[in-house]
Amino acid sequence: MDLIRVIEQKKLGNALSKEEITAFARAAADPATPDYQLAALLMAIRLNGMDARETADLTLAMARTGDMMAPDVGGLPVDKHSTGGVGDTTTLVLVPLVAACGAKVIKMSGRGLGHTGGTVDKMESIPGMRTELPEEEIVSIVRRIGCCVAAQSGELAPADKRLYALRDVTATVDSIPLIASSIMSKKLATGAQGIVLDIKVGDGALMKTLEDALQLGDAMVDIGCKAGRRVTALVTGMEEPLGSHVGNALEVGEAIDVLAGRVQGPLLDVSLLLGEQMLLLAGLAQDAQAARGLLLEALHSGKGLAKLKEMIEAQSGDGAVTQDTGLLPRAAHRIAVKADKNGYLHEVDATRVGLIAQSLGAGRLRKEDVIDPAVGLVLLKRIGDPVREGDLLAQVHTNHPDRGEQAAQALLQALHIGEGSVPKAKQLYAVIAKDRREVV
Ligand code: URA
Ligand code: CA
Questions:
Q1: Is residue 311 domain-shared with residue 347, that is, in the same domain?
Q2: Pocket probe mutation, ligand 1, options 168, 179, 185, max atoms within 8 Å of Cβ
Q3: Summary mean pLDDT of the chain
């Protein structure tokens, strides 16, 4: 099919037929297609949108440009996906917890993107850990122990890989049908039958407003249902980093502390909310309360932490980190960030915090950059906490004292102290499933 005609249709604001959309996805996966035609069509979609039918057609067509896994893992495979946040380590907390409750989890994860961290980078801070695994090995690990967190292979939805890279450099990332089809094409290709989506909303997230987050949730749930999968989306807050640690090894350490029962708070709370939905989709609990009971039992008995150790060892990593987080890489220097006035922590600029961690070496500025697993920062106050002048607000972990000083100064600017108390940041905003949409 002539791609120019497809571009022409979308330029005029018309809905594309299934055939036109399939031609687009195939062209995206074909290296012979020039970037400029794909870029023109992406911009036409960004400006003129796509309806629910077009979005679902695009998702399936993109998924089918690569391998479609149909893994036999000895149960219904469930997956969870976050649209990306700062200090968002729920995967490392909830995957072992739900696996300890009997779920089968194939978790294909990405690397860091912009100011947000990626689970694969975090996992690779564990000495020896392998994340680039062949499909057969992933399936065999899941069959044996219930979970595996692996890097997404290039064979999954290659059309998305090409389009995502083009969107990044043509200002077309922020399109709800393009985001929904991009994420869901990869989820459908991994063969997940139950999919829990964590749609982050707030200044540290891709979706800045509740309205956009709800629209994205509706679009993704609709795609999943049309493809015959069970999907539930939660909209959760990203006004401040979810955990207190930002940086690869630091976040792994925090996830271990949570699983060991040493740390409570929003990271655990959101992990439990997502975990409940995974157990429900897997058919392992009758209702959310029963699911929570199972998860808390796995947490308090230490079964969740033991499962993380098993998973790390199955992927050749040093499982002893789960008993001693001191075995994780550590930065040479720590720089204190202290409050310069009395008041309450009113606001955290979450994107800025992510960018500061990136500048320390926790993320990449260019694709080929090598990250430093040890560096990052720890926030000691949350929105709503009272603060006195001289209190420790945060700690910068760095291997370069100069960079660390700059980061510490920037961090002070990203933490806004004001007069008068303010409420804590909200965690759960909405639950979206096939037949219900509850805004809480
Ligand atoms: N993550 C993706 O995989 N795709 C998007 O478009 C946005 C976030
Ligand atoms: Ca904020």
A1: no
A2: 179
A3: 96
